[in-house]
Write a structure and sequence with these properties.
redox-active center, antioxidant, single chain, two-stranded antiparallel ribbon, 11 strands, 164 residues, seven-stranded mixed β-sheet, Glutaredoxin, peroxidase, thioredoxin peroxidase activity, globular
Length: 164
């Protein structure tokens, strides 16, 4: 798959999941060293916001927006996923005054499972959003075509709310 980064065409490696099929499994650690797996979230609607690097303005804005709009929706589990280190995510949350579920994909498990590795960016993850229903089926997906822009937060949230 190809996307652009400030107009330059770049490759995203892997096979992306398919809407309507079972979402790929994953187990990642959050900033509190707790393992979070998709299987553990069965019975909850899950919105996954994926960003390349929390220390950039677009990623910062994306993460803040989803935290403001989705974090307090009853029955919805919001996860933010990146290749940032645990320490980088902790520092960002602390500096932002935000307490949210941030998962770090240290070993590339999530990037591999969801087909989001961007070699041009040191295997960081392509900016994307996924909504998974209570049974673990992928019901919405957006892999942002221009990495330097935000995802359609309103569309993702609307898709998630339909499942509640």
């Amino acid at each position: 798959m190809q996307v652009t980064l400030k107009g330059e065409i770049i490759e995203v490696l892997g096979t992306q999941p398919v809407v309507g099929e079972k979402a790929p499994a994953f187990s990642l650690y959050n900033t509190k060293d707790e393992k979070v797996s998709l299987d553990d979230l069965r019975g909850s609607v899950v919105l996954i916001s994926v960003f390349p690097d929390i220390n950039t303005s677009v990623c910062d804005k994306q993460t803040r927006k989803f935290n403001e709009t989705a974090a307090n929706v009853e029955g919805l589990t919001l996860l933010s996923v990146s290749k940032n280190t645990k320490e980088e995510l902790i520092n960002w949350c602390s500096a932002s005054g935000i307490d949210m579920q941030m998962l770090h994909d240290d070993n590339g498990e999530f990037g591999e499972a969801y087909g989001l590795k961007v070699p041009h960016m040191g295997n960081k993850l392509a900016r994307s959003v996924f909504v998974i229903d209570k049974e673990g089926v992928l019901s919405y997906m957006e892999i942002v075509p221009e990495i330097a822009t935000e995802p359609d937060e309103a569309a993702a949230l609307a898709a998630a709310k339909k499942l509640l």
